[in-house]
Here is the input.
Amino acid sequence: MSKEDFFIGWSAQTPRVDRRFMLAASAGLIASAAGAGALMASAHDSAVGGRWDGVVRDWTGLLLSEPYPLLRTLDLDGTPRTAFLATSRKTAVRAPAHLDGAFVRVRAGLIARDNHAMLAVADGEAGIVADAAAAPASLLDWPAVAAGDVMLTGEILDAKCWFGAMRPGFGRTHKACAALCTRGGLPLAFCVGSVCSLGGEAPLLLDAGGRPHGRAILPLVADPVVLRGRLVQVGDVQQIRADLGAIHRL
Amino acid sequence: MAHGYRVVQWTPFKRAFDSVLLLSVAAFLIAFIAASLAAFPGERAVSAIQLLIRAFGACAFALLTLILMIGPLARMSPRFLPLLYNRRHLGVTCFLLALAHAGLVLVWYHGFGAINPLVSLLVSNPRYAAIVGFPFESLGLVALLILFVMAATSHDFWNAVLGPRLWKALHMGVYWAYALIVAHIVLGAVQGEKGPIYAIVVGVGAALVVGLHWLAGAREVRADATLAPEEEGWLRVGPALEIPDQRARIVTPAAGERIAVFRDGAKIYAVSNVCRHQGGPLGEGRIVDGCVTCPWHGFQYRPQDGCAPSPFTEKIATYRTRIEAGVVFVHPTPEAPGTSIAPSLVEVSTP
Ligand code: FES
Here is the structure.
């Protein structure tokens, strides 16, 4: 090896042999970086459905505070729809007590997936105001109809992310976020099946009495679980009602 | 403690190196984002922030894998030495990618909530006793802290202040960081994904790093196993003229560091094989401008006394040599670093 072949980093001259090797190595490196990036990205999981369209609109409807603050309203296409209420953060919005059961107007952005909907209320509690109009008959009297006992496997999710606030909003890497939303008091959904990412049904998860679970359920959020419970249909919302003791990690 | 450190100027090579580095990182990120958008259009698209989180994380892992491959590759072929020279730039870039990944995760997954994002990071999943379901985020956080300490102390100033031994020990932390990152991905993204792609990528990356280290290590062990033959307390190096001019032959004594025996024309010198900078193999370097020059980052030492030329202050041990019937012998006991020793002279026939 001649002196010219010895590489010294601080020297202004790069040896000729090195230069040829380095050029080839550089081209190879850039090409394989692009290849590796493309390979990993084309095979990772997709989001599958749901979106937060970012447009803040006026929504009118019947305000109910149970089991979670929600608005019975008409969807963009006029279909009667239950839209749960949240802030635009990972926290619940309180329904003003004096407006419970009243016809109200809310400025909010729509988060929707299939026939599931949530409204991110722009100004929080203060953004919910009484509306002079009367509630249309189609929004009144949605009785709870029991639909049988079931045993289901799946994942407990926060409904907001699942409906489309996060894409994807399920699984291992999303677990911390789901826990944060649960702490924040947002509604929980139960995504049925072993693989949430394939879509499928996600009934609202409540305790056996039809009330929210609260923070005690935190350790089970976003892990695969099996539960025994009762399916109940209220209007367009399917609920799965199961006590904490009837939910087990797989 | 050596307080002098090399103030190294920008060279065309360094500029080219950094350009290739930045181009590669950009190529990875752009290809990742473009491929994901192409593969998952419309309703199936991953949100922009989550896509960036994946892209930065994947790129940091790929880069760290590459960084850890350079060491053993350079041990096996001198062609990779130029990569070793500028490994610091790779390390700092890797830290910045990991930082971007972590920062976005903190804001996106842990932000906007009722509790502080940093608190959320540590308490959102308290199942530290579980294996499946372990809070993998904490592993990434520890790895990021290690990478931070290493990036912050990567400059030669710190090598000079801390001393090469402590500096090296500190920077061996990169292996811990890599192990933590592998666990972070396996317990996180790999468990979360339906497809096998992340499992395959992590498996291949880790296998490359472990495999190359094993190969390079096996060579070292073999080299250490062939001790130089001893004659009356002196180690036999071999015929003087078989040492290429300006180069060295490395001999392994029964105890202590390896010894590099250099030939500079008719003069034979012996110095420690271990560079004071980061322990580079001086005997694989050469004599440039009358100085032994380390193949790793180009530190220099005068062969007659082991001292770096002024203004630098590093010193390495020197060894006594003698020549008998054209054969070089070296005494295995090192002299104190900086001890001046006259060279043994060999007759070089000029054709
Ligand atoms: S190890 Fe860095 S110059 Fe020798």
Q: What stands out?
A: Chain B touches chain A through 78 residues (CB under 8 Å).
